[in-house]
Structure of Isochorismatase-like domain-containing protein:
Amino acid sequence: MAPSLHEVEHINTYIAKEPTLVVEHNTDDHVAFGGDDQWYYNPSTRRFDLSRGSARKLVVDADDGIRNHRGVVIDPEKTLLVIIDMQNFFIHPSFRDHSEGIKTLAPLLKVIHKCRQVGIQLAWLNWGITDHDLKVMPPAVTRGFNKSLSHEKGHGWHVGLGATLPQEQGGERCLFKGTWNADIYDPLKEHMTEQDVRFDKARMSGLWSPELPFHKWLRESGKKTLLFAGVNTDQCLLGTLTDAYSWGWDCILVGDCAGTMTDVMGAKEVCDYNVATNMGFVTDSEAFCAAESG
């Protein structure tokens, strides 16, 4: 559904707000990016400083030839690890063989542990729809979950949002809020803590509207830098990251903590390239876990 007049007014009001952040920085040996809310690039270290003058800093290294930099400096207190769609419906073997999603588990658990150590909060962002969501959902979104129309009227790989799943898969409604299939994948759920936050979404993006609870929470929390992990890299993860980028949050993709079932056309590599060279930065679990305070 397109943004309402109220949402458009809210967006314009948000954009028009005067920034209150003041950063004192030696710009003689740094290149500034942005307006009042700036990044700084240090040519000698080849790092981008996203810490905005914070006393606490974490230096995350990266360099794979396409990024043209040696990583980023972030403020742990204003950073959030966003884990997208690591749900039973997408990852559990009773639904499908998501080998790339399973492959992310080991590095993701290491990244989660590192975040706990340095004080980076976690957010779990998942499909969790309601009947109201289905009523106002754009046809393009529902079509994406009914790709097998030539096979038993859509009851194939994508059974359809809100449709009743087979008994061997729980017999619940597909990706409905509160169901087991929409819950966080069991091996990850045991690592959640009370400090984590959790949000539902009803689009590929979890930040498409300023009225969404996750959008509101992010603005109120003061978080500036978002680390991204989860599935699928070229779909829900990229959709959320793209909106985060457009709204002004720093975006860092943890490459080996993101997976996709799209196995053609180098989908994951294209996403990595576009994020690394345009929308933000790309690192990996090894570099992130080796990050030191700076």
Residues 131-177 form one domain.
